[in-house]
Amino acid sequence: MKLKIGIITIGSLLWDNSNKRKCWRKAYLDATKNPIKIPIRYGRISSSRMDTYTMTYSKNLIIEEYGQGIVIGFKEPITTLEKLQEIADNVIRVERDRTKDEWKVIKSGEPFTLNWNWGVLGICVNPKHICEDKTNEDITHILEFWKRSLVNFEPSKFSIKKEPLMINKDGVFKIEWSENIEKYDFLISTIIQPDTKTDDGNYPNAEYIAKKMFEGNYYSYFINNVRNNIRTINDNEIKELIKSKFCISNYLKEMENKVST
Description:
This protein is α+β, with helices and mostly antiparallel strands. Helix content is 33%, strand content 19%. It starts with a strand and ends in a 5-residue tail after the last helix.
């Protein structure tokens, strides 16, 4: 087994400058950054970000409405399932904002799992490895490992009402596989439960997303996503609303020039 792996980043995992995430990026990721079109939108209210919206995947989007995420490669190929588990476990650790020492305490005596209360680490396989009559043997072993590493996993929790499932019961999701990521054998990405907190339970529109940023006086997440080429179809409208309706163009310019926080 020697498979090349990458991670799809759709938010702060790419740009957050906390020591936990900087050390993780330095230890595990290489310097390649490949933009890809994927179905993402602002769909989860985050209390840690002043009740503003953070990014989620969404199968309600048609291809013309897709946003853009960034694929980054891991430094080392996957040669064993133990190596894959190490990589997956550390992605989950930094997603949950824990140091290595904190993580050891939290996970002491617990079995390894790919899902937790608000997220799951999904896997997406390069279609070249999957044929109607036979799937690559190494990929088969990885997919079996992925399936058995899920505990009480409910895929429906990762979509809103009447939305097609983003991820299946085995932890597998699919994207449009473009030429610039053909070098990867498979990709992983954190799929987050949407939590729209809208009256009708649907995803928020651009005005409501901008309104929540204004109410929380918090724009860093949105600005850092844009600065790092993580985009949604609503970005230009959100930015114009912030400048015009909420009249904070000077503040926005100031924030754009700051180092990510």
